[in-house]
């Protein structure tokens, strides 16, 4: 299993971001290699969000989901917020 973390800085008062992620999560729910997902909002800084997505592996994420027919619709939802990404990496769980 691998965990993808996508850290965003979103201007306050952008409900379109949360709605886009909600819709994108519906596509993730149908992806066989996506194990879970969660969007978190920073309590100290309202402009910060972290989207945590668990995948069966980095390989299946990059060569499975990202090459699937569903990825096009997924990317269109999140594309308007692409420049707001501060980090997008895959992590291995330790311990």
TrEMBL record:
Superkingdom, taxonomy of origin: Bacteria
Residues in ABM domain copies: 1-94
Family matches, as Pfam families: ABM
MF (Gene Ontology): monooxygenase activity
Keywords for the protein's UniProt record, in alphabetical order: Monooxygenase, Oxidoreductase
Classification via InterPro entries: ABM_dom, Dimeric_a/b-barrel
Protein name stated in the entry: Antibiotic biosynthesis monooxygenase
Source organism of the structure: Hymenobacter duratus
């Amino acid at each position: 299993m691998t965990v993808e973390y996508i850290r965003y800085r979103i201007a306050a008062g952008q409900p379109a971001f949360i709605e886009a992620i909600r819709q994108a999560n519906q596509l993730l729910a149908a992806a066989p290699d996506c194990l879970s997902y969660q969007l978190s909002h920073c309590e100290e800084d309202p402009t910060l969000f972290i989207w945590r997505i668990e995948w069966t592996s980095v390989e299946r994420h990059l060569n499975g989901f990202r090459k699937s027919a569903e990825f096009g619709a997924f990317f269109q939802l999140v594309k308007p917020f692409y420049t707001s990404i501060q980090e997008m990496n895959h992590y291995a769980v330790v311990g």
